[in-house]
Design a protein that fits this description.
This protein is mostly helical. It has a single domain, classed as Serine Threonine Protein Phosphatase 5, Tetratricopeptide repeat. Helices cover 73% and strands 0% of the residues. Helix 1 packs across helix 2. The longest helix has 18 residues. The termini are far apart. The mean pLDDT is 84.
């Protein structure tokens, strides 16, 4: 139960302007590793990547984004990857790692199978992937 609560806090606190330190991400990492709950870790890590990007800590965000991409590949759940990998692409874009941004956005687009309706249009990972890919190509 504590893992789920901590993962949700890490995944969403950036939306309310919460401090990166206040999320307890390191605690989540330890609990998830002990319980072998990599899905919860991926959700929390996504929020941490976005939080770091949001406060201009682009190098840290990019490093964590790389770790998130590897974690998602190891989980091997296409739906989860489509839902979360866009955050890594955005972190790479902010760090001007254009080649990696394109690779990640292409992965999201491929896994979404070109279907912008996998979720609502505004929240569609395919749409996010297309938008991020467009930003990388500029």
């Amino acid at each position: 139960m504590r893992i789920a609560v901590r993962a949700r806090l890490c995944a969403t606190s950036w939306r309310a302007g919460g401090s990166v330190v206040d999320t307890g991400f390191n605690e989540l990492r330890e609990m998830a590793a002990a319980a072998n709950d990599m899905v919860s870790l991926a959700f929390g890590m996504t929020g941490q990547v976005l939080a770091l990007s949001g406060i201009g800590r682009f190098e840290e965000s990019s490093q964590l984004a790389s770790e998130l991409a590897v974690l998602l590949e190891s989980i091997d759940d296409p739906t989860l990857t489509v839902a979360l990998l866009w955050a890594s692409a955005i972190a790479k874009l902010f760090r001007s790692e254009i080649t990696e941004c394109l690779r990640l956005t292409e992965r999201v687009i491929d896994l979404a199978e070109g279907d912008p309706h996998k979720r609502s249009a505004a929240k569609s990972p395919w749409t996010r992937g297309q938008a991020a890919s467009s930003g990388c190509r500029r």
